[in-house]
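Hi Y.,

Following your request, here is the sequence exactly as I used it, all 700 residues.
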Amino acid sequence: MYIVEAGRPRPLGATPDANGVNFSIFSEHATNIELLLFEKSNDTIPIQTILLDQLKNRTFHFWHVYVRGVKAGTHYAYRIFGSAQTEVTGDRFNFNKVLIDPYCRGITADLWQRSNAIGESDNVETSLRSTVVDISNYDWEGDQCLNRPMSETIIYEMHVGGFTRSPSSYSAHPGTFAALIEKIPYLQDLGITAVELMPVAAFDPTSVARVNPLTGEPLSNYWGYDPICHFAPHPGYCIDAEGVRHIDEFRDMVKALHRAGIEVILDVVFNHTGEGDENEPIISFKGIDNRIYYFLDPQDKRLYLNYSGCGNTFNCNHPIVAKLITECLIFWVREMHVDGFRFDEGSILSRGIDGKPMEYAPVLWSIELSDVLADTKIIAEPWDAAGLYQVGNFPGYRWAVWNGQYRDTIRSFVKGDRGIIGTVASRIAGSQDIFSEPGQRPINGINFVTCHDGFTLNDLVSYNEKHNEMNGEDNRDGLNYNSSWNHGVEGETQDLEIQQLRGRQIKNFLTILLISQGVPMMLAGDEVCRTQHGNNNAYCQDNEITWFNWELLEKNAEMHRFFKRMIAFRKQYSNVRRERFFSGSTDRHGKKDIEWHGCQLAKPGWDDPASRVLAFTIWSGEDAHDIHVMMNMDFVRLRFQVPVVGKGKCWKRIIDTALASPDDIVEQKQAQYMADNTYELAEHSIVVLVSDKYPSVSQI
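Below is the corresponding structure, written out as tokens. Let me know if you'd prefer a different format.
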């Protein structure tokens, strides 16, 4: 038996030292707490059960105990006693349910059966286990966060498991952090500057309990937007079975990405948890202190307020919950060297303890103003499932937000919708009409056309309708309107003309994305035309539907090349990634920083309800490259006027999305000089010209 001492209230979680482990957990309304110690992760009987004494082991609402002799690698859990008068107090204490520690650094799920965490029966034989982890002895080899300026960032949103789980990846440990390390040369070659990893904190894959109605195969929670512990890496992405090295496996990945010059941004989910609604399991927060951690219906405290659309809503601005969130972020930055965070349904973090949005939400402003997080990228999904929409007015100054209006406008424009060119121009120029608060800049907007939630870029040009039948929800899930266009045939086709037009449209989307002011984000696999066969909500598809198919790299090599060259273009020309908005100011030659056109110069046709074309020139002065862009999303070929470039300069054509590879995008030194003052654009195509020094006669 281990020797038990009083312990200390801070820090929360399990903290090992040379002689033992200090355990601390918060519960305001518990009456008693038991700590269960297990030798192995699959042991069903504790080697020791320790009852915490209200007088010796409680300081205010922190319950604590020091257990001498316990070492890292020990597994543990809690039983918590208290009122079960849910309809009166909102409490859901149930001593039969074995709970994981919200602050634990490792989780194992060898025995886990979700159904047994529901109801009144004891689930010690099928519960999750927390693992004591020593985080102090890791050799970072001098690694630091990269702190790349936001204006120079190009984000690649990806799923850790799906990136290498396909047999085509030939990974030694597919679907893991280690396998992602194997693919870093690919990411480095592509040219992106940051990976945004879909949730990597521990979640419950079994929270989806349905089968594919077409194949009979079981479905699972693939995306991971149902967290059960925010401090522990998801065990499904790790090799170590006991949870001791999960932290270090993640660190190995971060260190390797940093060596390649790639930042790591985590998609974090603090708006709800995987415990679901009143009919779902007790895993952690519900059984620790339900009325502290969740919004409860004031009319019936048995029910949860569901601002998240996922069954429950985390009470983010309660002091204890805000403490957990901020300490969690600091942990991932200090101990794991993460470069940034994207907050899923981030608007929920602005809701006060009464559920109403706050201008000065404590948790948001503590993140905004934290010295530890000062150089950390913070990105919000600025909406929630209850209708709170905060694009352009998200609380705080330095928060960047997913610009859903950019996605919708650019999709409509490329599809060929009429009369929206004024809005298109605003989106390309950085959405100053949206980010109009004093001090806001283009970098407050994350521009994207596709993300994990919705069609892939290939499917956006291949399907008019969603096809989610395999999700087992009778195709009711997912967005019904996607501003997509199948170009004449729904899904795959052997029609060469349609294939070529679809490929051109993919290039159009990418070109607009990477010449727009703001921070671009692309979806992993779009560069090789990955398809989900029309599924626009593949959250439950852990299979070939969502996995990165590495065979596409060879099949669609020309598209992959275009993506690489387009990313290089954005890096080369700073005028497409300005720190500040265009002001309309003119240089000494009378040229504005940006000038807008249609087919005719200086006539953009803002009020033309039939227009599908837009052109613009970014003038850069005598010592930099000017850029002229012409976009024809009409259904016919059109001739555009080209402005006269400055003295001693001429235009070079860098991009024409209507041309076949490799002429569709070339390096500046290989580009052709333009002698004419007009250029004919094919239907649904984009041409980009860049100024260069005027050639000698022999060069023309």
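The longest strand covers residues 30-38.

Thanks again,
Q.
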